[in-house]
């Protein structure tokens, strides 16, 4: 074990099961450790670094904005924040944006907004929020209470009240659970941490219909699948539906900490001055970078590239599935892809790392691939060939 890792293990909380690698540099889809070993990165900071590592546009805007203004708090208006809000609204269903620092904070804000809106319209009796089994919405007390995974919630009893869970892709169970006490339904259009589980073709439309009929707010958590990850700017665009509230983070800042909650004008009115806040939400530095990131995703052909390269990647993985009995299913959309195995995935992840590829598992037996959107065919081919060799030995 390196002295760097020994120091980390000595001084830092052991809240992560870290891989024994210390990364020191990145460029594009590649990163290097302190010993100079190169890895092709199919984790991308967990769907964060969509433009790749050390993206020139990020570096340039960071330098330029850091010389102008880094932070002044939300007591004042700043130009980069306004620019990013305008760009998000102009390219989404939403009318208003609230900026924060992470996906968990964005989801926390969405939970609060949905409850406050329902309280103003219907009173405190309409307060329950339905989310899905195997969902993941964050690790604050509210968002872990809204997360449908026991392993995330273990040890934090009593959890916050007011959350109810139903199976993903089951409209019948949702309809049964949607009584007059429910103020909102919160769902990831594709469950990332849940194992890259995609919705049935009419599921999200059915969700929208039920929520409209029962006067429940529909919240889409697009923290992992938004910002071009599926080949559209937002995943729900594939399914012809729009939510009332949407949350974003991860790739919005390409590595800088930012989250955003978007809503229609009607819902935004429930948040007046003093109703919700965050000191660092949407600083000039972060929003300047995020504006540049969003413009690049929209204007530089990344959505089209994600669609075509995602098809190619999925086809290559499906070829592996036809060859190897360890592969149960290949699923996903664009560049969020999962390979479900008939065996734990950790040994495969380790073998890939030793061979110079970074991948991760979701739900213990699903290999999850969320590389930068700039990934190319030769990088995918090299990974698939490596997986083929590893699977031959298992």
Instruction: Compute the number of strand runs.
Output: 15
Number of helices: 14
Strand line-up across the major sheet: 4-10-9-8-7-5-6
Query: What is the succession of H and E elements?
Result: HEEEHHHEHEHHEHEHEEEHHHEEHEEEH
CATH H-level superfamily title of the largest domain:
Type I PLP-dependent aspartate aminotransferase-like (Major domain)
Give the overall pLDDT as a whole number.
97
What shape does the CA trace take?
globular
For the record, the count of structural domains works out to 3
Low-confidence stretches: none
**Helix share, percent:** 25-40%
Major sheet attributes: 7 strands, mixed
Distance between the termini: 27 Å
Q: Gyration radius, to the nearest Å?
A: 21 Å
Query: In terms of structural class, how would the helical and strand content be classed?
Result: alpha/beta
At the third CATH level, what is the topology name of the largest domain? Aspartate Aminotransferase, domain 2
Task: Please write the CATH class name of the largest domain.
Answer: Alpha Beta
Overall description:
The protein has 394 residues and is of the alpha/beta class. It has helices spanning 3-11, 44-47, 56-66, 79-90, 103-122, 141-145, 150-153, 171-177, 203-214, 265-268, 284-299, 302-323, 346-354, 377-392, and strands at 23-27, 30-33, 38-41, 96-100, 128-132, 163-166, 182-187, 217-221, 245-248, 259-263, 327-333, 336-341, 357-358, 360-362, 366-369. It has a seven-stranded mixed sheet, with helices on both faces. It has a four-stranded mixed sheet with strand order 1-2-3-13. Helix 3 packs antiparallel against helix 11, helix 4 (79-90) runs parallel beside helix 11 (284-299) and helix 12 (302-323) runs parallel beside helix 14.
